[in-house]
Design goal:
This protein is an alpha/beta fold and about 250 residues long. The chain folds into two domains: about 10-220, Rossmann fold (3-Layer(aba) Sandwich), CATH 3.40.50; about 225-254, no CATH class. It is about 45% helix and about 15% strand. It has ten helices and seven strands. The longest helix is centred in the last third of the chain and has 21 residues, at about 220-240. Mean pLDDT is about 90; it is low at about 1-5. It binds adenosine-5'-triphosphate and magnesium ion.
Length: about 250
């Protein structure tokens, strides 16, 4: 049985730029969700399989994270079995490959409750990210009013020109930067050990923990964002239906 669509928080992490931090974000969020006792599942759509390989390195004494290798070849009949999500999963973290066709982009993002785009702040990365976000809005038809799309600035040192450029660019699109992950060897060491930075000694990872928890608070607020949009749409359609038809207004003002 799969969890009901309503309860499942499907978080898709995507950006065609290789090495921007997709798998890092997926694995660290999964580890943090696991610490909170929410039995997360990672679904890895990247043939490189970085997140699944991370899961294999994970010791059995750490909190359990379920893994699904979506790229594993399988017979058609067993495909849905292979992709089934355990019924106790509340948070599904989807890792994606560096290059995706428009169809793949539409397929992966269609029923997502959250879309996270990690962006590194070099000029080239910002250029690639801006094209990609435009694709998401136009090709995958992501409605910005749904507010399910957010950026995580990764490997960033604040107070740099490139960071300011990234902020301006996203501001112009109305897309929030919900967290800033600093460039830290903690992420590299955690990846090697199959753990999240939140599973390292807290005194070493205070800043990373704060940022991860900020991301999780934003991700977990998806039902409220959805409800707000439904309210907005209802208010709009009510005010449209209570307005007199255009020709009546024209006649009465004549
Ligand atoms: N904030 C960070 N600080 C230091 N190193 C980082 C940080 N984020 C990611 N890295 C390192 O950068 C490398 C690339 O990160 P990652 O594999 O998460 O990127 P990716 O977007 O998944 O790449 P790909 O497109 O190849 O799948 C990894 O070695 C990772 O440990
Ligand atoms: Mg990856």
């Amino acid at each position: 049985m799969t969890p009901s669509q309503h309860a499942l928080n499907k978080i898709v992490v995507l950006n065609p730029k290789g090495g921007c931090g997709k798998s890092t974000l997926v694995t660290n969020l999964a580890a943090r969700y696991a610490q909170y006792g929410t039995s997360p599942t990672i679904m890895d759509h990247d043939p490189q399989g970085s997140s699944i390989a991370w899961l294999r390195r994970r010791g059995s004494d750490y909190f359990k994270i379920h893994g699904i290798d979506a790229c594993k070849p399988s017979m058609q009949a067993t495909r849905s079995w292979q992709l089934r999500i355990p019924s106790d999963t509340n948070n599904l973290l989807v890792d994606s490959p560096a290059s995706m066709s428009h169809d793949d982009l539409r397929r992966l993002s269609s029923d997502a409750t959250n879309l996270l785009v990690p962006v590194m702040p070099s000029a080239m990365d910002i250029h690639a990210a801006s094209r990609f976000i435009a694709d998401l809005l136009l090709v995958a038809k992501i409605d910005r009013r749904e507010r399910k799309l957010a950026v995580v600035a990764n490997r960033t040192r604040k107070n740099t020109k490139s960071f300011a450029r990234l902020m301006r660019f996203l501001d112009s699109l109305g897309i929030p930067i919900i967290a800033v992950l600093r460039d830290s060897q903690n992420f590299v060491h955690a990846a090697e050990l199959g753990i999240g930075v939140s599973e390292m000694p807290p005194s070493r990872v205070r800043d990373e923990l704060r940022q991860l928890d900020t991301i999780i608070s934003w991700l977990d607020a998806w039902p409220e964002r959805r409800a707000q949009l439904a309210d907005q749409k209802a208010a709009q359609s009510q005010s449209a239906s209570s307005r007199p038809p255009l020709h009546t207004a024209t006649l009465s003002s004549a």
